[in-house]
Fold this sequence. Notes:
Structural class: alpha+beta
Radius of gyration: 32 Å
Strand content: 35-45%
Largest sheet: 10 strands, mixed
Mean pLDDT: 82
Helix content: 25-40%
Low-confidence stretches: none
Oligomer: single chain
Distance between the termini: 36 Å
Amino acid sequence: MRNETEGKKVSRPIVRISIISIALTIAVNIVTLAIVTGFQNEVKYKISGFGSHAFVMNSGQDNIFECDPIVQDSSIYRTIKNIENVEHVQSVAYKPVLLQSGKNKINLTLSSGKDSTIISQEIEGCVLKGVGSDFDERFFKTYLIEGKVPNFADESSENQLVISRKIANNLRLHNGDTVAAFFVKNSPVKREFIVAGIYETGLEEFDKKIVVGRLSVAQDLNDWGIKTRIEIKDTIDQGYLIIQAKTTGGNGNYRYDWGRGYENYSGIKICPVKDTVLRVVVSDYWNNIREQGLDTSIPDTASLKIKVRGEKFSFCELTWDKVELPKKYLDKTGDKFEIKFDEKVITFESTPGKGSYHNYIGGYEVLVKDWAKIDPTLAKLKKKLEFKQTEFGDVLHVNAITESQRDVFVWLDFLNINVAIVVVLMI
């Protein structure tokens, strides 16, 4: 009995140490798994918040920031929305932009003792993410630190941006400040925006790149679709005015309908003898040299209202030579003006087309409800959409987040190896 009692006294601390060791091992394993899993989920949430779990775009494109457009199609939207595990679908368009800070004065004292002033301006290269009425703003509201996320369905948000703290610090901007933005179209474009909100997620690679604005801004600046207007050339041809359609955007392969069907002539000659309205419908008629037989794309329509006073049937002639027609502008836009000829006065009022750019988007962002079911959801998306031509001639491709952000997800998978090593060592 004595030996048994002494044995128990000796073994009791050993048992306790074993129990404590096992408890610590289990606790460390649980904490390790919780930290790594939580970190992975947080990174996944932030990355998908900037973009989406899947991006439906034009086939043959890899870069979602510079992809060719597709026609915004409600039937495609409904098809995506009706797939099981899809939580939200939104239309987006991206456009690279250079943001420029205001002028910053730096006072210096030179070695000679003279004071000098240097004026500097910072420039930051970013990508404008254009969003519309279907924008899911929950992610950016979660990480908003100043201002607000505008209602991008409202036209008043046309000149507003949401930027990151990283960009704001680099450009010395604060909420409510005005920032200059430079875009490259057929020619460079400068616009000014107001900083409506500032966010910070901690993912520096994305924070320094993404700014959020209105969808219509990105659509217009991408030169998608076409936009046309009717202009009066400054020369007269044997008593006739030269009326010409000025078209921008699209692929540059335009054809024109002045009321007699489509033709290749961008202008007509006319000397108006009565009040009338001219109308032109312009379309870019093929997108690829191998697709010249395709139907016309979405056209744009412009008009020119004409009023004639005086000797209506007289020629459009002037008694002296002029380099330019003597146009008298009647409003600040320059769209309404009159020209005095020898025997009559003609008033012109040009109404530019609204443009067809608003029919095009960069693609659809798709958010899923359950990340664990993302693979079967992507499989259903691809089965429904990929390599099937839409009624507008678009061939779609589904780009998964695991493909577009492959490097990040490979890094996250390496963390699983670290977890396995820690668990084995603890066991």
